[in-house]
Amino acid sequence: MKLSDSERAFLEATLPHLDAVHAAARRLCPDRSRAEDLVQETYLRAFVGFSDYRGGSARAWLTTICLNVARGEWRRQSRRVTEAPLDIDEVWPHGSGAGAADVARTAQANIDREAVSRALTKLPEEQRLAIVLMDLAGNTASEVAAMVGAPRGTVLARAHRGRRKLAQLLGAQGVDCDMP
Amino acid sequence: MTCPEERILAFLDGELTGTQARDFDAHLLTCESCWKAVQEDRAGRLALDLLRGAAPVGLADRVAMAVQLAGSTSEGPVVDPGIREHRPVATPSASSGAKRSGHAPTRSRRPALILAAAAAVAVVVAGGWWGARGSGPLEPPQVAAVLAAAQSMGRDHAPGRGPEIVAHDQLIAVWYYRVEGQSVLVATSEQQFPMPAHPMRLPGSTASDWMATKGRLGIYCANAPVGHESMLVVAAMPVAELPHVAADLHLL
What we know:
The complex is a heterodimer of chains A (180) and B (252). Helix content of chain A is 69%, strand content 0%.
């Protein structure tokens, strides 16, 4: 099936930000499968509204849609996501192809990743959201301020306090935060 | 002593002038609380590096396919069954009576209708199937059993007949196909496959047909009246492609 001009223009403008949108979605959803569904829904809604898109950061635009869709889902479920279950695909990614010598290092990195993921869910909602939208999705503090309707300084403070709390939680678990 | 957090934030955010930053650096040597705040912030950022990474393989294709289907549907459903180029590398012999005779399943449905429905899936998706709720169990045991077989088949499963499964008193025959280098599982049964809790419905198709996804797997169900053969097609492909795969395998 051949892409139309509008489909091609949309995908060229937005697919470079897929990693960022997925990084945000993965932390806004309880599991990997629903995160991928959220990404797809985000892109479909963005495609529908692409004719109204007036430039600016496509990543911030997509992240805003992603956040709104996730919030709609939270409202429907009348509950907030409080903990991400252990995702076996995340702990042992398919096709990692690690040799025997790398197994211990890979295992430690994956265990640490899971520890960070779990610690993130322990943060207050506002701090977690600031971190997800800024540090994981790569938006600026000003862009996140517009998304969540808070002053830029408030967003910076939430992210800072969240990072400190995250480091403290991980330190208490013996996870080395200085690893590259 | 507790220093203003605003000054720490400005330092971390790179907002201080050269002189101000040098002064704050000197301050960090003597202020334990600011030093701790800066170190913890940096440690938190380093830890978060572990959560950044590329989106899963195949997600870009899935998104592009969904956008493409949404685009084609919004301009009017234009479905050309000839546009697909699924060619089984090798398939089991095709004749009727799969379950009991040991032959691969065949069906006699209306491909154009089903393919049009597949194109319309995008409309359903755009309408918010993400998070949609059905009335069925989250994952009926019959579907779970077929998914378990599909999850264990890998990319290079040899074409041919698979095991017979009995789940919730339903007898299910399993067949493996190869389509464009991908393993495809086809499960057939003389009873209908129940709908899971998160189905994608197929406008224009029968009410009992449905689609769903689980992880990388797409699932397409074509339910027939009781006594006729119902079918599940499962593969690590975008779900909207599966009716095309079924049509190319002459299962529809």
